Amino acid sequence: xxxxxxxxxxxxxxxxxxxxxxxxxxxxxxxxxxxxxxxxxxxxxxxxxxxxxxxxxxxxxxxxxxxxxxxxxxxxxxxxxxxxxxxxxxxxxxxxxxxxxxxxxxxxxxxxxxxxxxxxxxxxxxxxxxxxxxxxxxxxxxxxxxxxxxxxxxxxxxxxxxxxxxxxxxxxxxxxxxxxxxxxxxxxxxxxxxxxxxxxxxxxxxxxxxxxxxxxxxxxxxxxxxxxxxxxxxxxxxxxxxxxxxxxxxxxxxxxxxxxxxxxxxxxxxxxxxxxxxxxxxxxxxxxxxxxxxxxxxxxxxxxxxxxxxxxxxxxxxxxxxxxxxxxxxxxxxxxxxxxxxxxxxxxxxxxxxxxxxxxxxxxx
Length: 365
Fold this sequence. Notes:
The protein is of the alpha+beta class. It has helices at 50-58, 100-110, 115-128, 144-156, 174-191, 202-208, 226-231, 236-241, 334-340, and strands spanning 12-21, 24-34, 39-43, 65-70, 73-74, 85-88, 162-166, 194-199, 211-216, 219-224, 246-254, 257-260, 263-266, 277-282, 299-309, 313-319, 328-333, 347-351, 358-361.
C-alpha cells in the first residue's frame, strides 16, 4: 500500500493498480506519479490498458487492487462525483437537445452556482476555446472540431484539478486533428491544469506530452519525455512502437562490439555477454551516408535495393553480402540522393554512429 503524498510530492499517484475482468487482467501492478501542471500521455496499442487506467483514475471503473491519490487525498474508492476532474470523451458526449451555452453550463448548474456567475464563466470559456458567437447553436449545427471545443470547455467549466482526455481527437480528420492538438496543448499550458490524455497515435503523444507512458498488455513499458522515449527506448516493444526502427539479428563479438552479418559495429553492449545473440536496432534517419569513407568506424558498403519517395526524403533499402542477407532501411535527403546519384543496383558506403545503436535480447522485437 502506497504511503500518503508528502509536501512537494506528485499531484497524482497510482500505486500497484490491478484491474481484472473475470479471469482477464487488464492492468497488472501499474504505478506512476504525475506532477502538478504536467501533460502526460498514456500511449499504446488497442487493448494495452491505457483507457482502463484512465477510467480507474476517474472512478468509472474501480480498480481491483491498488491505491490512487490526488493532491494527497486517497480517492481509490470514491465515486466519480466526489473526484476532482473534468473529462472529454472520444465521442464528445454532448447533450444534443442543449445549446452550446447550456452544454458548457451543465456542471455549474448542477452545483447551483448563481446565474450571473455561471453566465460569466461560460462567456469566459467560449472565448478561451474560440467559440464566441456560437452560443445558441446546437451540437448538430457544429463541425466536429467545434463540438470537441465545446466538450473541452464543459470539462474545464468547474476548474477541475485534473483534466482527462480519452482519445479526444481520433474522430476528427487529419487537418483538424493537427490544428486542435496545438490548441489543446497551448490551452493546457496557459491554464496549468494537470492533464492525462489517452491516445494510440504516437505523433499526438510526441508533439503534445511533457511525458509519455508507453503501455503494453496491461503493464508500463517505459515512462519518459518524448525525446527519451524516441531516442532511448527501454524495450524492443517501445523501439518498435514509436517511430520507424530497423531490427537486425546480431551477435555480441566482444567488449563494446557487435557483429551484423560481416560488419563489426562498435556500440554500448551493456550487460550482454560475448557470443550472445541480440537484436540490433537503429532508426533509418540515424544511418549516415554523407562524407563517409570505407575505413571509418562503423562504416560498411551495401547495395541499394529499393527507393521509396517520401517527398523531402527518400527511404532506401540497403542489402547485400555485408549484411548477411538482412535489410536495413535508411532515410536520406533528396539533395543527398542527387549528390550520390543513387539508384537501385548501385552501392553506397554508410555509417551507423555507435551512440545510435540499441541492443535488445534476441527474440524480443
